[in-house]
UniProtKB/TrEMBL annotation, chain A:
Superkingdom assignment: Bacteria
GO molecular-function terms, A-Z: 2 iron, 2 sulfur cluster binding; flavin adenine dinucleotide binding; metal ion binding; oxidoreductase activity
The protein's name in its UniProt record: Ring-1,2-phenylacetyl-CoA epoxidase subunit PaaE
Gene3D superfamilies in alphabetical order: 3.10.20.30, Nucleotide-binding domain of ferredoxin-NADP reductase (FNR) module (3.40.50.80), Translation factors (2.40.30.10)
Cofactor needs: FAD
Keyword hit for Iron-sulfur: yes
Residues of the signal peptide: none
UniProtKB/TrEMBL annotation, chain B:
Superkingdom per UniProt: Bacteria
Record InterPro entries: Aromatic_CoA_ox/epox (IPR052703), Ferritin-like (IPR012347), Ferritin-like_SF (IPR009078), PaaA_PaaC (IPR007814)
GO BP: any one term: phenylacetate catabolic process
Family matches, as SUPFAM superfamilies: Ferritin-like
GO cellular component, one term: cytosol
Record-given protein name: 1,2-phenylacetyl-CoA epoxidase, catalytic subunit
Amino acid sequence: MARFHDLEVTDIHKTIRDAVVVTLKPVNGAAEEFDFTQGQYLTFRQDFDGDELRRSYSICAGKDEGILQVGIKRVDGGAFSTWANEDLNVGDTLQAMPPMGGFFTALDAGNEKNYLGFAGGSGITPVLSILKTTLATEPDSTFTLVYANKGVNTIMFREELEDLKNIYMGRFNVIHVLETDAQEIDLFTGLVTEEKCAQLFATGWIDITSVDTAFICGPEPMMLGIAAALRTGGLDDSQIKFELFASSQPGRAKKRAVSTDAASAANQATAVITLDGSTQTIETPKDISILDAAIGNKMDAPYACKAGVCSTCRCRVIEGEVDMVANHALEDYEVEKGYVLSCQSYPVTDNVVVDFDQ
Amino acid sequence: MAEDMSIESYLAQGGVLTNPTNVPPRYRAELMKLMTTFVDSELAGAAGFADVINAGPGIKERIAAAKIVLEKTDNADRVLKIMGEFGVDGDRYASHHPWTARLGRDADIGASRTEHDMRLAVFNYPLEGWSDAVVMNLLMGRAVAVQMAEFSMVSYQPLAEAFRAVAPVEARHAELAAEGVTKLAESGDTAALQASVDYWWPRVAASFGAADSTKADSLKAMGLRKSTNAELKTRWEAETKSVLDGLGLKAA
């Protein structure tokens, strides 16, 4: 099971008005765990007024650069991204799980391949990591990037991409497609749709027949359109690599209405909780979820959404009875076997025994 | 670019998901079920076959059997790693089930799972000696080939990629089984081989699931299935019948 590690913020700078590039250094000997592959992402956790949020951001550094760097674009109303853009400072400590994800292909210095990348907005972060690593590792390969943005001033890493064009002249090409800003070539204005891709292929801007692998990272409709155009262009599914970070996040668990006799002794329960092979007995109010009771007693219980949707916090009730107020994840047969979502389950009987290991 | 699209309609239009953060709950449940079924079946299959290694008549056969055990365990590990990204403790998972446990040869469990794990029902039946094991491996190997072709197209990209890597390895296991059955058939005891085919055929057929599954449509909408249980079973029956014909055996 993946664990969180401490990372020190060693640098932070803006790439556009509302996006920062954060450089991180693993501390406490965790460096080896953060030896990433190009295109992977990190999952961070951070407390906001007692509520822990988890958010994933792609690494934007190339593998050969020797640094760990993520790009974080501010999302309207997004607690984590706003905090990272406005309040995060050099010297602060962040917590993240080791790199995850399979948005990459194996590289080989002997390859002579043609790669095609599509990025929409902040979807550039993993694609930037991939293209930098690829161009540095495979001297005979080429990379063409189609980069979709609203306008010129929202293009993340614009200068860095220009620099890369100069370093890898003839091997790296960028096509900026802008939604609102007019460009000299009409084809480069608008959205990157299936039709737009077909036009790029038909007019020779992209030689689709020579493409070995395509990478796509952006919002859902853009990914669908591009994938359809690539398939029409002759690529099969094993040649198309996707990375999707949906913008919608599950809602937060609402605090359960506490009955008026909450303070009375009758509201207390004894919970016996087994996790990672060890068992703790704790006294807990009946209006605190099993998960929160475990976490409140320093048990590292697994969870992610705290909204009853992800099932990461699943545990099994061995004795006693709990009230599961929401269940969007477990199937009937699991519930029949006594599984509950601990974030949604409150003790009913005075004694409950639950096991996270089953 | 900022147009909104629900994950559900994205999937229904053939979109793929790439990491646990954007997997919706119902999808997650079905995906976890698919992954645990595969992992449990591979681990149970490998554990059962491990006991048969020493029954191999010659060194080549034992090498083949040991290789199959190794590679099926390795295939389980690939998918278990993906489950790890969903919070599953892989080490704990792999060691807390009694993978060698089997029911009686005549147990009548249809397509149902046991209480403790998600292995396909067929992996709950014990193997009876070398030739029985080789026949089971041939029939099930053909079934796995059909399943892998189907599941290499699932909408969860990391799993689709794992299955694409697993498919040729599993295909080789079915070939090894076919070679094994050919050798056994040459040495004579066709009646015993036929008895094993008769025993395993309906049990492997049942592993494709109920023909009247009510989930087919929702699985299709999530991009987790393309074909129905019945279609896959028909494909397997046709392909395996012709393999058996070539070996002088009859499908049950």
